Automatic annotation (TrEMBL):
Residues 8-138 form the HTH marR-type domain. It comes from the Bacteria. This is Transcriptional regulator. SMART domains: HTH_MARR (SM00347). Keywords: DNA-binding, Transcription, Transcription regulation. InterPro entries: HTH_MarR-typ, MarR/SlyA-like, Tscrpt_reg_MarR-type_CS, WH-like_DNA-bd_sf, WH_DNA-bd_sf. Gene3D superfamilies: Winged helix-like DNA-binding domain superfamily/Winged helix DNA-binding domain.
Amino acid sequence: MAVSEDEANAVFLGLLRVQKLLVAAKHNAPRLEDGVDVTAYPVLFLVAGAGTVRISELATTLHNDVSTVSRQVSALVTSGLLEKSADPNDGRAWVVSLTDRGREALVRIQSSRAAWFQGLLTDWDGPCTTEFVHRLRELGDALDANLRARGAATPPMPFDSRNQKQKED
């Protein structure tokens, strides 16, 4: 059964509110790593999921300009969380990977974020949370399929919780 127009609008408005609140929270989040802006965290998550990845691939996956991601990567390299090296397949291009310090930082970041969300979700029970995550994935998959149908490149997100779960298994 399809959702009604009112239900679809309610979902959209609810997501819009959450998006705006997450942006506001991001700007007030504590910095866990000196010199690392929270806007660069997705770069860390993607590199962790990929192992070694080209900056252009990061930009495509994050739907950002290469110049933006390149600046974020440079800051992460300067802070010692990423290392940059020549692409073994094409010496003209660069690839990045996590350093040991980057892996340690990632654990701290993920632990801090998990603790924050645990605090936000104190009134949720396991089945409720599982259902929410399931529905959120379905929405993400539907949005991804819609973008692909429109010709927008949307590579899989390595920091998707399903991918994280697969790595842990």
